[in-house]
Amino acid sequence: MSSGILAEELEVLEAIYPTELTKLPNGDVQIDVEPEETEDGAEPLKVTLNVHYTDDYPQSIPQLSLEPIDTTFDDEEISQLLQELQSVGEDNIGMAMTFTLVSHLREQLSKLLRERIESLKKEEQQRERLELEAEEARTRGTPVTVESFKAWKVKFDQELAHKKAQEEEEKLRALTFKEREEYRRYATRLSGRQLFERNRHLEDESLMEEGAVSVDFSQYERTEVDQEEESEHVTFSDSD
């Protein structure tokens, strides 16, 4: 390796990368590298390029390695970046190539950054699409089957019975103790239709003037059964 050529190259590199380049005692260098472009809100990409110059440099490619700096890289990404650097080094055999390697690495980091941003956008679009599909499915409802209808009917009947029980309880609370007892006594022996007619009759009575007398016409109703029973007990004398 020509020490003069390498010394000149390192002098240039120190001028270009005054804060990024670190010279090691064994002659190796480390250069912190970032993408050429940055994106707002994107995770920063930054690596350290370790360069170990071979004895016959620049007639051979230096040994290269990458160390992430506060950044997450998977093995495939690191491998791809090193392959790119190896290819660029082969194209520059016989020439000082460190600056070219660093420049290409910056380009590749920019490309990787764009790919990551695009991947995040696709993930966001996928998430939004799934949320939209879920909302559409919710608003469309579930197709009704015999089983789902039966389950709904049981639940509906239970809710209806609960509602009626609450209404009945509220109605009883509005009555006096004596009125509640009488109401319950009649409710246990009257049919639903009879209860309805009785309640309607009571409501009509509430509209009557105070002191008016109501007449229970049911006392005068006679059924066909009653008439038949009476006819069976009618006897005729011999004189008739």
Automatic annotation (TrEMBL):
What are the protein's UniProt keywords? Answer: Coiled coil
Query: Carries keyword Coiled coil?
Result: yes
Where is each RWD domain found?
A: 8-112
PROSITE patterns reported in the protein's UniProt record: RWD
SMART domains in UniProt: RWD (SM00591)
* Coiled coil recorded as keyword: yes
Span list, region Disordered: 218-240
Q: Which residues form a coiled coil?
A: 106-142
Pfam families registered for this protein in UniProt? DFRP_C (PF16543), RWD (PF05773)
Known InterPro entries for this protein?
GIR2-like (IPR040213), RWD_dom (IPR006575), UBQ-conjugating_enzyme/RWD (IPR016135), ZC3H15/TMA46_C (IPR032378)
Q: What is this protein called?
A: RWD domain-containing protein
Q: Which organism is it from?
A: Agaricus bisporus var. burnettii (strain JB137-S8 / ATCC MYA-4627 / FGSC 10392) (White button mushroom)
